[in-house]
Design brief:
Number of strands: 0
Distance between the termini: 69 Å
Radius of gyration: 23 Å
Low-confidence stretches: none
Helix content: 40-55%
Order of helices and strands: H
Largest sheet: none
Mean pLDDT: 73
Structural class: mainly alpha
Length: 57
């Protein structure tokens, strides 16, 4: 194989790895965390009445 063919193959492999990584990040939200189970609900944000008022200094 010529050097040009090897470079092309390496570039295509890198592109494939990046594409799969981007797809997984879009699908799961991040590479580290597994997708949530269907039964798990995301944590509800705290209601405004629970949050203590902030004071401007």
């Amino acid at each position: 194989m010529s050097r040009k063919q090897l470079t092309l193959i390496l570039a295509l492999q890198l592109l494939a790895v990046v594409s799969v990584g981007a797809y997984l990040m879009n699908k799961t939200g991040s590479l580290a965390s597994p997708p949530p189970e269907p039964g798990d609900l995301p944590a509800a944000p705290a209601s405004p009445s629970v949050i203590p008022p902030t004071q401007d200094v």
